[in-house]
Amino acid sequence: MDITRDTPFVPEDDQYHALGGDPLNLETNWWSINIPERRIGIWVHSAYYPNTGKLRWRIFAWDDRGADPARLAYYRIEDGVDMPGAPDLRDIVFPAGGYHLKMTRPLMDYRVEFADPAAGFALEFDFVAAHPPHRFTPGEPPAMFNPHLDQLGRYTGTLTLRGERIPIDCWSVRDRTWGPREGAHASSQKYVGKPAKILHPGGPRWREIERERGRGRIQYIFGHTDDQTGFLSFVRPQDGDVQGRSPLNMGWLLKDGRFTRLDKTKSWMKNWRSPDTGWSAHMDVMLADEEGRTMEAEGFTVSHMCEHGNGSNALMRWEYDGKTGWGEDQDGWKTDHFARMLSALRATG
Residues 205-210: contacts with CB within 8 Å, 24+ apart? Predict the structure, then answer.
């Protein structure tokens, strides 16, 4: 069967999938939580490599008091863990002290529990989906060859941080991806040893560096108020114009309770970066769907998590249609590319 953007996911997709023989093939599950009044963002994530039987899982919570792993509210990663045979993603406790994930309604509702008593940290939450999962268009970046789903839902539960119990009640997303994602698949060879190609030269030098093609840049933004209003999309800085407007590809506009696909020719994001950190600080987003509906969004970062010493995952406060929403900016870079951009952003002459 040919898979198109309209092909629905099926209950069997809650399980792990049979993947090809490449040892770098992997399958992920990811959960994103926000607690706006505390400026807290939370990730729960795992990546399973079925052809090697290895697992990486990580959980982190960040606020506005520190962005690197040593200064986060909480950070734990277990990598290279042996996964027991025949794992069932519908009801699993990840090894080496990992979280418990249980599907409670196929493709729609889930429960996650985790505790690290030594750190005074724990998470327990339920995710109740607002819609069946959305499939991204096969053959389009960044999910070129991988099935990928995104899904909005309501998270309710409790975060325990340094022994303090903090309620969770937010609208945010989860996602899943399976297939090739690392190694040669993730390393563009088009410009090795050659000058960088820039589709639209000109404008501020730091923006020009950001637009270099073949550098592995990826940016993913979303924000929601509830199940009636919000948006989600991947950003394509590589295709941006001299004015700094980067087109959006894939994702949705949620307006008046109805999800519609974005018109990639009319949707864009313009970002302003902090010269101190190089991270996103403020952005304008124009969203237009395939039916001609539009929404303008303005976003501000309120806290950051920088796991790898370059770009950041930011908790975002959004304003659109007279409402306030919350979400993220995931700003992915390779370190050498980020360092060049930041140097240009800081230049004094």
Answer: 205/344, 205/347, 206/273, 206/341, 206/342, 206/344, 206/345, 207/240, 207/242, 207/244, 208/344, 209/337, 209/340, 209/341, 209/344, 210/237, 210/240, 210/341
Whether residue 35 is found in the same domain as residue 167: yes
Domain span at residue 231?
Answer: 191-346
Burial of 22 (0-12, 13-18, 19+ CB in 10 A): middle
**Nearest-CA neighbor of 309 among 284, 327, 334?**
334
Q: Does 163 lie in the same domain as 40? A: yes
pLDDT digits (tens, 9 = 90+) for 170-208: 999 999 999 887 755 455 555 555 678 999 999 999 999
The two beta strands, 109-116 and 268-273, are: unpaired
Residue 17 falls inside a structural domain: no
Give the model confidence (pLDDT) of 215-240 as tens digits. Answer: 889 999 999 999 999 999 999 999 99
**For residue 141, what pLDDT band results from cuts at 50, 70 and 90?**
confident
User: Do 337 and 223 share a structural domain?
Assistant: yes
Q: Are 195 and 336 in the same domain?
A: yes
Say yes or no: 133 and 255 in one domain: no
Q: Could you tell me if 127 and 197 lie in one domain?
A: no
Phi, psi of 322 (to 5 degrees): 75, 15
